[in-house]
User: Fold Pumilio domain-containing protein NOP9 from Pseudo-nitzschia multistriata.
Amino acid sequence: MDEGYHRPRRPASETIAYLRGLPLDIDSAHQEVARFLSKDSGAGTGADVGEHDADDDFFPQSLAAAFSALEEVKGEIASLAGDEYGSQSIEILAQIAAPYSEIASRILLNACRGYYLHLATHRYGSHVLQTILQLSSSAHSDDTGADLAMHEEAPPSLRDEGTEQSLPSLHDCIQAIVEELSPHGPDLAVHLCGSHVLRTLLCVLGGVSLEACRGGNGSNNNKRFDQTGGAIRGRLKPKKKKKKKPRADASSPTGDAAPHAGTMDVVYQTNPRVDPGLFASTLESLSSALLGTPSEDPGELQQHACHSSAGPLLIVLVRVLTYAADGAREEFSVPQGNGSDPEAAKKNANNSIADFRMGIAKTEPRYAEGSPADKAVKRILCWQEGADQQEYASDVIYGLSGEPRGSHVLETIMRLCPDGFYDSLLKYGDFLTAQTLQDYAEHPVSNFVVQTMLTTVRSKEQAETVLKVAEKVVSSGLAIDPAKKRRGILWRATELAARYRIEQDGLLKAVRLGFLSWKGESSGGSNDAEATAEEGGKKKKQRKKASSVELKDCIPELIGLRRNPGDDQRITLDAAGCRSVHHMLRFSPRLCQDVLDGIIGGLQAEDLVSIARDGLGSRCLMDGILDGPVKTPIFAGACKDLRERMAGSWTSLATDRVGHHTVKKLFRALPKIDDKARLVEELVAGGNRLHGNPMGRSVVDSCLVDAYAENRKEWRHRVGKLLSTSEEKFLSEITRQPEPKTTGGEKADGGGGREDAPVAAKAKRKRRRKRKNAEGTEGGGEEPRKAAKTSTISTEAIMNIMNVH
Assistant:
């Protein structure tokens, strides 16, 4: 790195004192500029006259001070970037000035010219360079497009700079950074600070940015980080030694750890100042410099994939190359107008939180065959193009899957690769062999690769093959035992079975066998089981073993509810187990009875109330019941049982931040008006308590509580109209289908009687179907026949069920 390496001189102490004495606050500066822009565009005229209107007519003082300070210190920016306190001041100036002025961004970048390599490897300067690059590439969302440095009321210093021809354009400044850093790419890739600068540079060239995944990391220092320039340098006060907190469940990716490059969201820049298409060739040349010299044998690149700094850099490289493609940009970029609607933004935020609690990954684009991303991936895996057999790919895949950093690289490839390459990845990774998958699942790192594989399956045929192999892992007890922390495999397997509606019977049987293995109940009868296998076959042995365990008894164990010893009202749930139960509730309705019994009947009433108050429990379990097929008899009965089990707690839940969602959903899900009336009657007894907070008022509006208190007959009429409106499509589908097949009323009456069939008769039919079907019968195979039978219900029978008169 000695060639072309220049180090700036030390900054003047007077300059640092001057910058630290400036009364600049980032939040206040952005608020001032926002008010000024709204006033300048005419949005603030009219009746909205406030106390700040007199000041809003003038140019923002904080922005003017930042412009003036930038002009004063532009010759010492590179020196200040290497100082602990000077770097903080420069980043504050950049965060105030750069979003609203391209001229300020060009001055900041040009002032560091010739020192990019030094700053990229400096612990303070690297943060300054990242901040300037991020803020310079795109304008602020409130920016009208005009450079505020050229405003007639702005300080004249930067206005004069903008008219000079000596100041390079923004495109030329970014191009100069690439030219200076590219020759040192392999060295910077393994440097702690340099790799972060290269990540930011790749994102700028691709027109994207990295954001922390949904849910955040729970830190309370976010504002402090922003206002000190993006990073805290040095110790502001001595740290006290604290006891290490227990690590989060390894089967759940929702811990408080810092976000990894493979899990961060990639978003397109909304107001880019330079067209990313102009950097296409530059991005490709930088990626070639980072990948090094092409070689068919494993070497330095594979070592970089397992490096703590170079591994995340390769992840960002593959993702940026994928997102930078024109097709991906057209499909996944969000129009700028969508962010202006506050209601839509609120809805998107709520959906994002709900998806985060369910562990739903964001949909990402896939690169095309022959694209730069495809070439980079094949270089990482030592893929031999056009060869019948891969000599090194299997070993590389197996090695990456067991390394903490390399596994993230492999998971990123699984998410982004095209369908054809994904088949080859499963083949050469040997993921479809039972013994190999068991080895992957038992490994403390490779088991996360198995979870990603279950999430990224591309077709129904692949899903069926993968699930049959995964069932053996589940039946061994590895994915059931909470001490082994592998329940994430069960979670992803149930999610896959629910998505494609296959292998649901087999997976539930594997769950029961897994609980047998975990509890050790099969150890005493192992010899008898083997003898039975020799005489009657393996299937008979497994059916006999699985029948000794009730699925409803397994559900509370999967939920894993534990109460806090210090606070009895706080509970802890098994995240992967709750998500597994949620997806089991999305199986064929005939398979959900035991799951529903395990939740409603297997848990105490106070536990159900605590689950309704918990964000994870409410989303996974309560929503799993109430958002399911509530028109079917199984779920309709479960909704009624849930209301009865939690009677007396609905008023307190209606005023809870999380619990009120369950109350509103239960009101909509209850099939009969009498059941809705009993729920609302309990809410009416709460009196003014519901009107005392926003959650309670929303329940009052959704459940028509005030209307019930005033006139119950009128309330029944209004609820009946709501039911008839919401069920119109459902009733029309039922009433129009029987006519071509039968003309009499016997069929309809028979269908109505079938709705009220005893539970014992249903269980007998279920056992009869199991005896007829093979072990691997698909979970959704009975749905068409059942749909044809239930479609013969008459309108009168439906109205009787709904109790609408």
